[in-house]
Amino acid sequence: MQSRNVNLEREDHLKITETNLTIMMEFVLLGFTDIPQFQWFLFGIFLVIYVIILLGNGIIILITRVDATLQTPMYFFLGNFSFLEICYVSVTLPRMLMDLWTQRGTISFFTCATQMCFFLILGATECFLLAVMAYDRCVAICDPLHYPLLMRPQVCVGLVAASWVSGAPVQIGQTCQIFSLPFCGSNTINHFFCDIPPLLKLACGDIFVNEMVVYIFGILFVTVPFLLILGFYIRIISTILKLPANTGRTKAFSTCSSHITVVLLFYGSATVTYLKLKSDEHEGLDKLISLFYTILTPMLNPIIYSLRNKDVRKAMRKLLFKWRNLCIGLSL
What we know:
The chain contains 13 helices and three strands. With 332 residues, the chain is an all-alpha fold. A three-stranded mixed β-sheet has the order 2-1-3.
C-alpha cells in the first residue's frame, strides 16, 4: 500500500512537471502593464522615438556615404554604428509597440529565444565597435603621421567585420544555455523584451553556474572593451594636454567628447543591468535602466554626433539644401 502511494505521488509530480514545461512553450511579457492608464500614451511616445531613431541614424548613414568630405575612417565607423543602432533597436522596439497596441504580451518560446539571441549579438557588436571607434581617435590624435597607414580601408573593413562577427558564436551558445534550463511555475517575464536577468528568475533549480557564466561573459563583452576605451582616452587626453593651446586642442576635444558621451550612456546602463546582483526588489528600476541602452541611447546618438560635430552639421546642411533645390525644381 505504501509503495502504491509513493508511485501515485511520483506520477502526480511527473504530471505537474510535464504541465509546467508545456506552459513554457510561450511566455508573457508584462512590459508596462503595471501602469495601464498610460498604455496608449507610451505607445505614442515610443512610436515617435522609433521614427526619430530611424530618421536620425538613417540620415547619418546617408551623409557618410554621399558626402565627399566625410570619406574618412571616423565617419566610416560612424555610418556602421548608426546602421547597428537601427538593427539593435529594431530587435525590441517594434515588438514592444505591438504589445502596447494589442494589449497582449504573449511571445512564443522560439521567438523569445530568437529575440534574445539577436539582442545579445548586436549588444556585443556595439561594445566592440565603440572600442574600435576609440582606437581610431587614439591613432588619429596620438600618431597622426602613421594614421593613413594604420587605418587604411582594408583595416577599417576588417575591424568592422570583426566587431560584427566576434560575439556571435558566444552569444548563440549563451542563448542555447539559457533556454535549455528547466522553466516551471510562472511564465510571466516582468520586462518589455526577452533578456537574461528576468528569464533566469523563471528558471528552476540551481542556476549558480548559469549566473556565473553571465557574469563572465558580461566582463568579457562589457568590461574589457570599456577598459580598452578608457585606456585609449587616457592616452588621447594626455596627448592633447601636451599640445600648445592654439594647435587644435579644442577641435581634438570636440571630436572625442561626443564619443565619450555615447560610451558613458551605453556602458553605464548596461553594466548596472548585467553585472549587478540578482534582486526582485527593483524590477521597475531595471526596466527603466534597460530603456536607456535599448532605446534612449540609439535615439540620442544622432543628436549627440550632429550637435557636437561641425563636419556632420555642415554635411547635413548641404544635404538639406540639395533636397530643397530638388523639391523646388520638381514643383516648377
